[in-house]
């Protein structure tokens, strides 16, 4: 029975994924506009961030759309299919749950921020243009 349920959800995910990605593409907002200097500062401040995510996770899509809206170049890491990223997420953050933003802090330590709403709020606080 467990196997059937697992295959049911796996098939459902396969069917839904293209629709979710299309919907993401169509509903991703325009990026905020910044001067070249401001964009360079935002790029510098976000260069050590990485988003651990699954491609078709609705919470990850929500965060990716916010990253696009804020015009940020944040590396996304596939924690579903890439074993290295998956292991890094589990070892660093403590669990396989996405989205998770890896933040390299000024004192050299790392912070692993879970929860899509918290990630969005953290990004807005730092990168929303005045
Ligand atoms: N409340 C969380 C929900 C995140 C969530 O449920 N993510 C799923 C993928 S869509 C996940 O990581 N599942 C794996 C698990 O919980 O072990 C958020 O808003 O970020």
Fold and architecture overview:
This protein has 130 residues and is α+β, with helices and mostly antiparallel strands. Helices cover 55% and strands 15% of the residues. The protein is built from 5 helices and 4 strands. It has helices at 2-27, 36-46, 58-69, 83-93, 116-127; strands at residues 49-53, 75-78, 100-104, 110-114. Strands 2-1-3-4 form a 4-stranded mixed beta sheet, with helices on both faces. A hairpin with a 5-residue loop joins strand 3 and strand 4 (110-114). Helix 3 packs parallel to helix 5. It starts with a helix and ends with a helix. The relative contact order is 0.15. The protein binds glutathione (GSH). Glutathione is lined by residues 54, 57, 59, 96-99, 115-116.
Key features?
55% helix; 130 residues; binds glutathione; 4 strands; Glutaredoxin; alpha+beta; single chain; globular; 5 helices; 4-stranded mixed beta sheet
List the helices and strands and how they pair.
Layout: H1 2-27, H2 36-46, E1 49-53, H3 58-69, E2 75-78, H4 83-93, E3 100-104, E4 110-114, H5 116-127
Parallel strand pairs: 1-2
Antiparallel strand pairs: 1-3, 3-4
Glutathione binds next to loops.
How would a textbook summarize the main sheet? 4 strands, mixed
- Estimate percent helicity: 55-70%
Computed over alpha carbons, the radius of gyration is 16 Å
* Shape descriptor: globular
């Amino acid at each position: 029975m467990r196997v059937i349920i697992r295959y049911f959800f796996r098939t459902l995910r396969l069917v839904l994924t293209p629709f979710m990605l299309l919907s993401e593409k169509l509903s991703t907002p325009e990026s905020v506009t910044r001067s070249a200097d401001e964009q360079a500062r935002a790029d510098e401040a976000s260069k050590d961030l990485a988003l651990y995510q699954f491609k078709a996770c609705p919470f990850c899509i929500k965060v990716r759309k916010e990253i696009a809206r804020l015009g940020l170049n944040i590396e996304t890491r596939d924690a579903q299919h890439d074993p290295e990223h998956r292991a890094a997420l589990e070892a660093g953050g403590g669990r396989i749950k996405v989205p998770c933003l890896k933040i390299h802090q000024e004192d050299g330590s790392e912070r692993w921020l879970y929860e899509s709403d918290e990630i969005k709020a953290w990004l807005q606080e730092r990168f929303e243009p005045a």
